[in-house]
Structures are given as C-alpha cells and as structure tokens.
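ESCALATION

Customer reports they have been waiting on this structure for their group meeting. Please prioritize. Original submission:
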Amino acid sequence: MRSEKEKMLAGDLYVANDPELRSDFKKAKKLLREYNQTTEDQGTRRQEILKDLFKKTGNKLPSITPPFYTDYGCNTVIGDDFYANYECIILDIANVKIGDNVMFGPRVGLYTAGHPIDKVIRNEHFEYGKPIEIGDNVWIGGNVVVNPNVKIGNNVIIGSGSIVTKDIPDDVVAVGNPCRVLRKIDDNDKKYWESEKARYFEN
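Update from on-call: job pushed to the front of the queue and completed.
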C-alpha cells in the first residue's frame, strides 16, 4: 500500500495527519523559523538554510527576502538566479518547479493544494495537490496567486494582482482575474529596452 506522501505527490487524495508528512512539515517549520529571523548580514546562513530546505537548487542559490513561507520545501525545485520579494508563499503539497532567472514581486503565492468540493469528503480531512511549473526568464508581479495544476511558459510576465488558473504560453504578458494573455512580447520590446539601457550609460 502506498504511503500518504506517495499519494500526495501523485496528486491523489491523501490525509496530512501522517507521521512522515508531519516530520517533513516540522523540519520545514524549524528551518523557516530560523530563516525568517536572520539578518541582512547573514547571507551565507540564509543560503545554507535554503539549500537544506528545497529539494534542489541551481548553482546560483536563491535569494528570498524574509519573511518566506512554505509547507515542505522538499517538494520544490528552483533553478539558477531566483529572487522572491517579501512574503512569498509556496504551498508545495505537489511538486513545484521554478526555472532559471525567475523573479517574484512581494506577496506571490504558489498554491498546489486543493480540497474536495464535496463537504462530507472535505470534512473527513482529505486533501489533494496538483503541480505548478514556471519556466525560465519569468517575472511575476506582486500579489499574484498561481493555482494548482498550472504551467507558466518561458519569457513570461504576469501582471500584479493576477490569479493564474490556466496554463500561460511562452513569450507573453498576461494579466487579470482570471489571468489571460494580454499580448505577445516582440522585437519592439527588445528595441525599446535596449534604447533605455543605452540612455542609462549615456548619463
């Protein structure tokens, strides 16, 4: 018979009140308590904690501004050069994968967790989770919520306050509740920002 953790990570119904899951949860909470109490002069210790917390990190370790919250951490994979601003929340009941060069504004939430619609089953404390995947070169604005079973493509910008309920393709700006594609990112964007960079070096 499968463990509750195996059921959880498979996206099936599971019960969280399980010794193995409680142990993982407790470890994460201890690490987070220390992390959120560190100072700006303890960068090395912060990176040690994140390396211990997450399932996998890139060669260039994440930079996450405290406070930060997660359920387990050990179900989250993060690529190179990840930055998250204040009050990031990652509920990694299911697997979370974040690519390279990803930036989060303040109060971004990744929520893989779900509860049954049926009240009887829900009140029996059954839960489930569905994965979230974020590609490379993604900027997610402040107060964005990413719901379970969502994949965000590469080179994407998600506007602040958006609620992402469905997959977002590559190379777009997407905004709203529910989040929808606003427009493609094209060469005009590249030209504009290259000119802005040139002006910076002229000053």
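Sent to customer with the following note: The chain has five helices and 19 strands.
Escalation resolved.
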